[in-house]
Structures are given as C-alpha cells and as structure tokens.
Amino acid sequence: MDKIIFATGNKGKMKEIREIFKDTSYMVLSMEEARINADIKEDGTTFEENALIKARAVAGLSGEIAMADDSGLEVDFLDKAPGVYSARFLGEDTSYEIKNQYILDKLKGVGKEQRTARFVCAIAVVFPDGREAVRTACIEGIIADVPAGENGFGYDPIFYVPEFKKTTAELTMEQKNQISHRAKALAAIKDEVLFVEGKGDCR
Predict the structure, then answer these.
(1) Which of 190, 170, 194 shows the shortest CA–CA distance to 182?
(2) Residue 201: predicted pLDDT
(3) What is the CATH number of domain 2-196?
(4) pLDDT computed for residue 154 by the predictor
(5) What does pLDDT average to in each consecutive run of 10 residues of the chain (203 residues)?
(6) Contacts of residue 143, Cβ cutoff 8 Å, sequence gap at least 6
C-alpha cells in the first residue's frame, strides 16, 4: 500500500484525513506513526506558505509523498485574528478552552452581524520527485455566544454554521466532511494526488 505522511500529530485531524482518503489505496500516517521527529519552524506569513514549509520538510525526511495543512480561524471583528497564529494564539501551550473563551469575551455584546468568521485551510502536497501543489478552502460562519458540542477540536465549539444551526463541534463526522474547510481542501488535494500518481481519470 502506498504511503502518505501527513505533517501532524493531531489525532482529530488525522481522523478527518483518513475519512477522506479511505476509498483510495493510500495509507495515511502521522509523523509519529512514520517515526519522524522534526521541529519544523512555521515562519510563513500565509496559510499556504506554512503548509508548504511543513510538507517540504517531511518529504525531505521521509522520501514519501508528504502532505501538510495550515489552518486557522479568522474573526472579522478581531481584524481576522487569530489567523495564521491560530495554533499559537495566546501562547503555544494555552488550551483551546482558554483561547475560545478569550474570543467570546472580546465579542461580548457584539451583534450577530458583526460576529462573522471563517475557517481557512491550506493543504500542500510534495511528491518525491519534487512536484508540489497547494489547495485552499474555507467555510463561512459566525462566532457563537457560548461554546457547544463535543465532536470537534480547537475552535470548533465556538464556530456556528447557520446552514446546520449548529457549531462545527456539534456536527457529525459525515456532516463535517460535507462542508468543512479541511474536508474541501483535502478533497481537492486528493484529486491532485490521484491525478499525479496516475490513479485518477481527470482533474
């Protein structure tokens, strides 16, 4: 079975990735599962740059197809913060419970029309021969008044999707994979992988 090494150790993220690739011949491994231990400095200024930095590093270390994502939450009322700093927002070791509450506190009393936000995800793939591709997708929503849901991770409990009248942490995996920023970007990058590897009919 062919391998794809995904530059993450996040179990929630790996679950989403494997769900998208379950109908392919690829085994998707995390860095830990592939026994790759690397401290990759994400110093890009965009989601796309950071995704490529990680994918290039893992491709160089593994010799396999490498993928990486950089994703985050943009809150319009906070000038699109936390943005590319979403994972490091308020400090790398700060829990998402604290991060989420901080955002809710900043938006306290702010009307629904000003609570607009989006999840953005850029996914990069680097092939052993050096070819690269990046795909970016997003999902629009609003910041909820209170956290809700147990199914997601990160900022999911405070990101409300009007279409479903639920936060992304309240959605089932099937619902999330229909609409999420990561699912959309993964679906696009999966098509790219299958095409480049000669396993897909067309783009």
Answers:
(1) 190
(2) 45
(3) 3.90.950.10
(4) 92
(5) 89 86 92 91 92 96 95 96 94 94 98 96 95 95 96 93 95 86 90 74 38
(6) 75, 77, 103, 104, 107, 115, 117, 158, 159, 160
DSSP state of 130: S
Q: What is the DSSP string of 70-128?
A: EEEEEEGGGTTEEGGGGGGTT-TT--HHHHHHHHHHHTTT--GGG-EEEEEEEEEEE-T
Cα gap 183→185, rounded to integer Å: 6
Per-domain residue ranges of the chain: 2-196
Condensed to tens digits (0 to 9), the pLDDT of residues 6-31 reads: 999 888 889 888 988 999 999 999 99
Burial 41-79 (b: 16+ CB within 10 A, else e): ebebeebbbbbbbbbbbbbebbebbbbbbbbbbbbebbe
Catalytically active residues, by annotation: 70
Provide φ and ψ at 29, rounded to 5°: -115, 145
